[in-house]
Structures are given as structure tokens and as C-alpha cells.
Amino acid sequence: MAKQTKLFYFIPYVMWLALFVVAPLILIIYQSFFDVNGQFTLENYKIYFTSGTYLKMTFNSIWYASLITFFTLLISYPTAYFLNKTKHKQLWLMLIILPTWINLLLKAYAFIGIFSMNGSINHFLEFIGIGKQQILFTDFSFMFVAAYIELPFMILPIFNAIQELNPSYISASRDLGANNVETFRRVIFPLTLNGVKSGVQAVFIPSLSLFMLTRLIGGNRVITLGTAIEEHFLVTQNWGMGSTIGVVLIVAMIIIMLVTGEKKRKGAKHK
């Protein structure tokens, strides 16, 4: 009976994966081998790896995703650390997660209003005598908004990792004479590294393919592979080239997951 129950729940799960994960991947890979006229070709991959434009887009995507991940981590780790020490930490965590319930497009338009020439930031700058500045459609505005949107996805896994940390390890470190800095460097951070890796995955991978923010906030000054995919599918109708870039992004995401994934211990096999 238990076996039938497990099978009952397992079948919908497999069907979901097959229809919404495996099938789209197969279609993207399949479509990448066809040109605009529907002819089978390897030219898409040749163009991608020999074109300076696409290689520059790849570099830009990795560079901006790395910067967004770095600044997000820089804010998230101290936030998650001190959040664990607060009295009402679950309430504060809920307030941090709450913005993820708001549609991305609405948040983007909200920041357009804040960063525009007649927005609240420029009104404040004008009030203190600095004068209006071009904030919207800059690299700063793009990375700021992207980091703000991705912030909860970095904080949550780090928060969980710190919360699961055994306090006796910290006490033992203090008893052995380690100061706060040494305790953090040798005990707390290494034991919460899996949370950091999960956060890096959750932020870096989506940041590789941002296209809405590059248009609305970056003003197309920031060109990434996500922008190129949107152009090929919606403007030039070159689905083959768009799919090729999509395949490259999928491979890059798999590499990131392998690099940041939890390593199995050698002795685990013998247990």
C-alpha cells in the first residue's frame, strides 16, 4: 500500500519535470541547430564562438552577474548574521522576503520613478545643493536594482545555515582563546559556507539572463545574453540563434551549480 502511495505522488512529479523542464530543454537544443530558413546547420554555434559581439555579451553577462552577486553577498551575510541575534528574527525575515511577492515589473517601474530626473532621489540631491544627476539608465542603477531584487534569495539560505550552526562550536572557539574575528574566520564562516554557495547559485544564475532590467533600468546601456535572446526571439525572429545562446547559458548555469555545489566527502562511501 505504501509503495502504491509513493508511486501515486511520484508520477505527477515526473510528468511535471518531463513537460516543463526536460521537454523545453530538448526543444531549445533542437532549435539551436536550425537557421532562420529552417535548415539544419552548425552555423549558429560557429557564429557565436567566433563573433566578438557575442563573446563581449558573454563577458558582460558574467561580469555584471559577478558584481551583483558580490554586492548582494556583501550585504546579505552581515544581515543574516545579525538577524539571527535579534529577538523577533522570524518577523524581520518575513519583512525581508515580503518584497519578493511583488511583481518584478512593478518594482522596476517603482525604481524608474525613484531614479528619474524628477524622482525623489534627485529632489533630495537638489534640496541639499548637489543638483540633479543622471541616475537612471546607468550601470549603477542597473546593479542597484538587480541587487535589491536578488537580496532575499541570498539572505535566506545564509540565515538558515547560521541558524543551524551549533552554538557549542562558537563557545569552544572562545574557550580556546580565539577572539571574535578568529571565531568568525575559522568557525562560523566555514560552517555556513554551504548557505553562501546556495545563495550564490540563487543570485548568480538568474543574474546571467536579466533582460527586463537591462531595458527598463539600464536603458540598453547594459547588454547581456538575456537581452540578445529576447532580441532574437521577439525582434529578429532568429529562433535558432536565440536558442543557441540559451544553450550556452544553460551550460554556464550547470557549471556554476557544479562549482558551487556541496562536495561529498571521500569517506562517505565507506559509511
How would you characterize the overall build of this protein?
The chain crosses the membrane at residues 7-30, 62-84, 91-115, 135-159, 199-218, 238-261. It is found in: Cell membrane. Residues 58-260 form the ABC transmembrane type-1 domain. This is Binding--dependent transport system inner membrane component family protein. The radius of gyration is 23 Å and the shape is globular. The protein is built from 13 helices and no strands. The longest helix has 32 residues, at 52-83. Helix content is 73%, strand content 0%. Mean pLDDT is 88; it is low at 265-271.
Cα-to-Cα separation, first versus last residue: 31 Å
Largest beta-sheet details: none
- CATH topology label: MetI-like fold
Mean of pLDDT: 88
Secondary-structure element series? HHHHHHHHHHHHH
The overall strand count is 0
Tell me the helix content.
over 70%
| CATH class type | Mainly Alpha
* Percentage of β-strand residues: under 5%
What count of structural domains? 1
Subcellular location: Cell membrane
Transmembrane segments: 7-30, 62-84, 91-115, 135-159, 199-218, 238-261
Family: Belongs to the binding-protein-dependent transport system permease family. CysTW subfamily.
Protein name: Binding--dependent transport system inner membrane component family protein
Q: What characteristics describe this protein?
A:
271 residues, mainly alpha, MetI-like fold, 13 helices, globular, disordered C terminus
Helix-strand layout with pairing:
Layout: H1 2-31, H2 43-50, H3 52-83, H4 89-97, H5 104-115, H6 120-127, H7 139-163, H8 167-175, H9 180-191, H10 193-208, H11 212-216, H12 225-234, H13 239-260
